[in-house]
Amino acid sequence: MNLTAVSADKTPKRQITAKTLNYRKNTKTQIAKAQNYRKDAKRQKHNNPITQKTIRPLIVLVGPTASGKSAVAIELAKKINGEIISADSRQVYKYLDIGTAKPINKNSKFQIPNSKLKTTRYKNARRKVTEPIIIDGIPHYLIDIIEPDERYSAGKFQKDAEKIIENIYARKKIPIIVGGTGLYIRALVDGLAELPSANYELRKKLEKLAKKYGKNYLYQRLKKVDPLSAKKIHPNNLPRIIRALEVYYLSGSPISSRHTKTNHQSYQAKIFGLLWERKQLYQRINERVEKMLQAGILNELKKVLKKGYAKNSPGLEGLGYQHLLKYLDGKSKLEEAIDSWKRDTRHYAKRQMTWFKKDKRIHWLKVNEPSNPKKIAREIRSLLGMNSCRVM
Questions:
Q1: Does some domain include residue 378?
Q2: Would you place residue 37 in the very low, low, confident or very high pLDDT band (cuts 50, 70, 90)?
Q3: How far apart are CA 349 and CA 288, in angstroms?
Q4: How large is the average pLDDT for residues 303-309?
Q5: CATH number at residue 225
Q6: For residues 32 and 38, what is the distance between their CA atoms, to the nearest angstrom?
Q7: 206: which residues sit within 8 A by CB, 6+ positions away?
């Protein structure tokens, strides 16, 4: 049929030229390309660890007490544009610097960034957890944030650390989690199961029982109602014993049945650990105790007591302070207190390693004397495959 023909009862049909057909063909091709491009872009975004929020980089450095984590973390932060979050259940306390081995020296600056406060760490209002102190030029978080008579939990650490991490990401920097408190690390990296909130009235009753009958009395109770937790908790770790009993009495089920991991998909955690030969580590622990004594931990403890804090304050439950309190109370000689302090710290380091070695994600770095934090930091940077890093 002739396209230009005109019928008596029909309007003329438009002539379709080769140019028009070619234009339509090209248009369809362009539309198809655009659709494929959008699909590819969506796929690339999903698989890109930088643009995909769920797998942003998070570096974690763990190890037993006295292994040199803080010094390595500072060197690493300098190399990869990082900021440090302390995962240490003792360093959260104000006024307790020496016995908690805070990474503080005479060059440390405690001025809060973007603040007019220029004098002391402790005057004026309480510092927000999202505000760091500057140590060797590196922002440090969750150090000196609560009073010695307050308690801090793994759940609170998780919430605080997540807020800080978001702020660090917003500044295009890399968060570095550093510490030896295994439960804090697990809470952040893997999440914690939903547990009943703290019941302070019940806790006070349990604390009174412990004071009247001893820690072992509560520990034996725990063995009856939750034997699995009792195996994991040291008989002298009163806060964890009380928490386990608290959960059982409030919920009717043991805390061990609730510890199911809920992986945090928002972080791509790279976990590194400092591994010492046991004999060398124990020697470092003994030497550090002596250095703490020389640095004035006994006077530090006396000053805290003079401020009006009770001897049973949570901040004074840490290693060293509890041993020196017995000496101040006349319950032991100084030499006995020091020996038991060293022994209990060695036992604590052993328990830390037992905890961490269960986590197969940890990449262990062998460390020997003399320790070289810069060298270890370079090794970690190499393993991460970065010279410097920013979050896009």
A1: yes
A2: low
A3: 13
A4: 97
A5: 1.10.20.140
A6: 10
A7: 218, 242, 245, 246
Domain ranges, residue 253: 200-257
Residues 367 and 250 in one domain: no
Residue 154 lies in a domain: yes
The CATH number covering residue 366 comes to 3.40.50.300
Give the pair of three-digit tokens for residue 155: 């759940």
User: Which H helix or E strand runs over 298?
Assistant: helix 297-306
Can you give the pLDDT at residue 237?
Answer: 86
- Co-location of 137 and 111 in the same domain: yes
Structure tokens at 190: 């893997």
- Residue-by-residue DSSP string for 10-73: SPPPPP--HHHHHHHHHHHHHHHHHHHHHHHHHHHHHH-TTT-GGGEEEEEEE--TTS-HHHHH
Among residues 137, 77, 146, 92, which one has the least CA distance to residue 113? 137
Beta bridge partners, 85, equal: 141, 177
Q: Does residue 237 lie within any of the structural domains?
A: yes
For residue 146, being part of any structural domain is answered with: yes
Cβ distance 141 to 83 under 8 Å? yes
Q: What's the token pair of residue 374?
A: 């810069």
Peptide bond into 370 cis (omega under 30): yes
* C-beta of residue 163 within 8 angstroms of C-beta of residue 156: no
What are the backbone angles phi and psi of residue 82, rounded to the nearest 5°?
Answer: -110, 165
pLDDT confidence band for 41 (50 / 70 / 90): low
**8 Å CB contact between 364 and 271:** no
Q: How confident is the model at residue 256 (pLDDT cuts 50, 70, 90)?
A: confident
Q: What is the DSSP letter of 128?
A: P
Q: Indicate whether 76 and 148 sit together in one domain.
A: yes
Q: Are residues 172 and 132 in the same domain?
A: yes
Look at phi and psi of residue 112 and say left if phi exceeds 0, alpha if psi is from -120 to 50, else beta: beta
* Domains of the chain: total: 2
| Domain match, 139 and 175 both | yes
